[in-house]
Structures are given as C-alpha cells and as structure tokens.
From TrEMBL:
GO terms for cellular component: membrane. This is Calx-beta domain-containing protein. Residues 34-153, 155-267 form the Calx-beta domain. The keyword Transport applies. The lineage of its organism: Bacteria, Pseudomonadati, Bacteroidota, Cytophagia, Cytophagales. Keywords: Calcium, Ion transport, Repeat, Signal, Transport. Gene3D superfamilies: 2.60.40.2030.
C-alpha cells in the first residue's frame, strides 16, 4: 500500500533544517535578565539610644555574580569619619561607602552605630545615596536615596545656655585685672569649647604686636588664647580674663567688645555681646604745646627719688607738628615723694623763634581740675637737635624744668631754662587719634587759662 504522505525532497530538507534549528536553540542559553538595585525603605527612623541601625539594599532578583555597591553620605548628622574634632552622631560599621552582595543573594546592609551624646541637638538626618555598582547587569533604581532620621532623646531644656553675667562693664586703666564672667544655665555636661571675637576702639596686644604697634596696646587676654575658651565638664561659670595696661598716654575713653560666635553642640550662646568701657586713668598731666609753624617738638620726662640723680622716666615723641606732646603720670604708680625733670626738645623746623609752653594739670574722674600751671619759653634754630648721630654720641638732653611731688601733692614747678644750643631728640612714633583728642582738651583749657 502506498504511503499517503510521501516524503519529498523538499519536505525532507525542511525537516533537517528544523531539527538543526531545534538543536541550536537547545545549546544557546537565554540572556541574563537585568536586576534592579534600590533601598528597602525610603525612610528610616531611630532614636539616639537605638544602638545599631540597619539600612537594607535590595535586588529584585538574586545576584548573578558577586558585586560591590558604592554609596555616599550627607545630611545634618555628623559622621565620625569626617567629624574633624566635632562631636560625631554616628559611625559606619564595616567598609565605609561600600556594601558587598554575594552571588545568589538579594540584599546587602549598611550598619550604622548611632551615638548618644547627652546633649539636645534636635532631630538629625543621614542621607544615603546609591552611586554605583561594579557589575554590568544591575541597574540602580531611579529613586536611589533613603533618609535616616536620628530622633533626639534629650529634651530641649537640656541645652546649656551660656551668657555674659553683665553686658555692660565700666572700668579704668588703673584697674589692670578684669574678669568677664560667663554663666551657664546648668553644669556643663561635657568639656565645652567656645569661640569669641574682640572688637572696639581699645587695641589688644596680639593685634598690636602683629601690626608693629605694641607700645600702643591697651590690654591683653590672659586666658582664652586665640579667641577660644574652654569650660570644663561640671562647671557652671567661666571667665575671660583681661589685663588692662596702665600707660603714660592721655587718651579718650576706649571700648572692648566681646562676642561669643560659636559653641559646642551641647551648648547655646547668647548673641548679645558684652561691652567694656575703659576709662582714662587719673594722674598728673604734663603737656608740651608750641606754635603751629610746622615745627616738631618732643617731650621727655625724668624722675628720681628725692635728692637722687634724675633718670629718664617717660617720653612722648609722636610725628605730628600741629598737636601737643602729652604725658600722664598715673596715680596708680603711688609715688608719694619724687623729683621730676622735663626736657622740651626742638626736633625739627625752620622757625628761629619757636614759642612753646609746658602745662601741668591734674586729670581726675574724666576731666581736668582747676589747677593748671603754665610755663612759657622760646627756642631758636640753635636749639635744634635732630640727628641720630648726636644721640649715639652720648649727648644728654637738657633738663629745662623741674617739679616735685611730696606727700602725694605736686608742686615747686620751675620756669623753663633755655640752653644756648641743642635740646636733643628722643624717638618718633605715630600718634593714635584718641591720644590727640584728649590732649586737645587740655590745650583748650590752657588757652582759656592764658586768656
């Protein structure tokens, strides 16, 4: 019987091709499906006392091979690795910035140790972003971030409030030592480091030395070097200690302003600064005035115990030609008995008849008393001594006037002796504005006296 379905050459060829294609399909595997990587949760919350918090990274299918996932950290919480001296809020356990996922696994974990610091800071955040993966068949999900919120377990009332005990202080140059007190609302829970800045018209010694004006410095900070003060754990007060210089300059009253600018995380500072007014000290003023003719004069004061040889005591030798030279003998020196000498020095000029005067007055409680004594004289060009050679050669300035102090009272003010020639120079310094202002006040007083 004939086969009703004879196999033709064409059918046989197709069958062979079909078998061949089927064999090829069985030998070649399907392309590996791509996996997607994401965070298990978009937000995570944990208290400061939670210890270790786990943030899971998940794949939507098992890993086809070992992989390493890279991530970055941001947010308001402080990472211990990058704290740089600040109080850390958390620490990554294991490799920082990397998570390993083994072949066949569907997740990896970032383990975070939360730090409880005992200080109120408010809630803080750790923002974690998936950055990269080191295999080709894994995609990072479009939403590739999660936010970990660290819930502060301290009450806001636990913050240490720090403020100045007084925001306005009045003192004087002759007080010398001044403590600016800081009050804490509660004992410091840890060692605190505060920063502060200095401002005002008074010149602190650090700035003065840096600007080659150390002789004009008004005060220096005894502690808190570099604008930083440390408050030890358990303390309820602290001080910024100042030393006020007693000097021989008659100056305007000056100010020192101290502002707290930053604080440790366990404390909050009051933004109101403290302003310290430093009043001019009381004392005996000797002022040299001369005609405004372009001449420059200097003033040298001598002193000694009664009956002893006079020695150089103070000098005022600024570089102006239209302002007086002034020295104040501070009462704080407590010299009950002393002999004094005055050398008015014609430093430079072209005036052959230079009229000048030396005024003596008492300065007390911010003003001059009515005890001004004035002595006048005249120099010629023969009295100019303005070369350093004459100083190194040993020439001694003439003591042109003398006066005494006995039992705390100044008196016996002599007239002014004018040498035949020479008067000798001391040194030249630029005068600050506040030195000039108060000297001008005495100058006006002298003019009124002369009238």
């Amino acid at each position: 019987m004939r086969n009703p379905y004879p196999i033709t050459k064409s059918l046989l060829a197709l069958a062979i091709v079909g078998v061949s294609l089927s064999a090829c399909k069985d030998d070649d595997s399907e392309p590996t499906p791509r996996a997607t990587l994401s965070f298990e949760k978009s937000t995570v919350s944990a208290g400061e006392g939670s210890g270790v918090v786990t943030v899971n990274i998940v794949l939507d299918r098992g890993a086809a091979e070992d992989m390493t996932v890279s991530y970055t950290l941001a947010g308001t919480a402080v990472d211990k690795l990058t704290a740089a001296g600040a109080a850390a809020d958390y620490e990554i356990i294991g490799d920082h910035g990397e998570v390993d996922i083994k072949k066949g696994e569907t997740s990896g974990a970032i383990e975070i140790q939360i730090v409880s610091d005992g200080a109120y800071e408010g809630n803080e955040t750790i923002d974690i972003t998936l950055d990269d993966v080191d295999v080709d068949n894994v995609d990072i999900a479009e939403n590739n971030t999660t936010k970990v919120t660290i819930l502060d377990d301290e009450d806001e009332g636990d913050v240490v409030q720090i403020s100045f005990d007084e925001t306005s202080i009045v003192t004087s140059e002759d007080v010398t030592e001044l403590s600016v007190v800081l009050n804490l609302s509660k004992p410091a829970p840890e060692r605190l480091v505060l920063n502060y800045t200095l401002d005002g018209s008074a010149l602190d010694s650090l700035f003065a030395f840096e600007n080659d004006a150390s002789f004009l410095a008004d005060y220096y900070v005894v502690n808190g070097e570099g604008g930083e003060i440390v408050i030890e754990k358990g303390a309820t007060t602290a001080t910024i200690d100042l030393f006020i210089y007693t000097d021989i300059f008659l100056e305007d009253d000056e100010t020192i302003e101290i502002s707290l600018t930053s604080n440790s995380v366990a404390a909050a500072v009051d933004q109101e600064p403290v302003e310290i007014q430093v009043n001019q000290q009381d004392g005996r003023v000797i002022q040299l005035e001369w005609e405004d003719s372009g001449a420059d004069m200097d003033l040298l004061l001598w002193a000694a115990d009664p009956g002893e040889d006079l020695k150089r005591f103070f000098s005022s030798a600024f570089g102006f030609t239209d302002r007086p030279e002034t020295i104040i003998i501070p009462d704080v020196l407590e010299l009950p008995d002393a002999d004094f000498g005055v050398s008015p020095i014609y430093f430079s000029g072209t005036d052959n008849e230079l009229n000048f005067l030396v005024a003596h007055a008492t300065f007390a409680d911010g003003d001059f008393l009515d005890d001004v004594t004035v002595k006048e004289a005249k120099y010629t060009l023969n009295n100019i001594n303005n070369t350093w050679d004459q100083q190194t050669g040993g020439q001694i300035p003439l003591v042109a006037q003398t006066f005494t102090k006995r039992d705390g009272v100044y008196g016996n003010i002599s007239g002014i002796t004018v040498a035949g020639e020479g008067s000798r120079r001391t040194s030249t310094k630029p005068a600050p504005a506040d030195v000039r202002h108060r000297s001008a006040r005495l100058q006006n007083t002298v003019r009124s006296f002369n009238r």
